Amino acid sequence: MRKRIYWLLPDLGSAQRTMNELLLARVSERHIHFAAADGADMSGLHAANILQTSDLVESAQTGLLIGAGVGAAGGVAGAYELASTAAPAAVVIALAGLGAVLGTWASSMIGSSTPSRRLRRFQQAMAEGQYLLMVDTPRSRIEEIEALLEATHPEAHFEGLEPHVPAFP
């Protein structure tokens, strides 16, 4: 289980030095993510992708549940009319599956264009030119990573921990 550590860094140079120090501390590049204002220079940084900067994952999960529920409800209603020609359980399961797929697809399209609610509190700082660092680290290394950043970057600001990091982004 990983936790996400948030830090705000004042400029590109500080962000690049932080990236290098984390790599030297054996933090994998795929667990280091930087976000900044649109158009900001991200050279030398591992930029956060759509999974870290949007509500894609949360929206897809919501769409899956709602779509499956609506599909199952439609299947129950349709099963009464088709009871003489098809197995009612098969109709309910098929429509629940179809609803889940369509709900996931539609919700993920909306979620991919919606900025992450988790990053909303950093929007003003990023608009002012700061860089947001997100480090996904095992619980056993949280104190080590925080101590490293505090010692080497007094200009950076610790912004807290996120308790649950999705497994795949």
UniProtKB/TrEMBL annotation:
Keywords attached to this entry: Membrane, Transmembrane, Transmembrane helix
TM stretches of this protein: 62-80, 86-111
Protein name (Swiss-Prot/TrEMBL): DUF1269 domain-containing protein
Originating organism: Roseateles agri
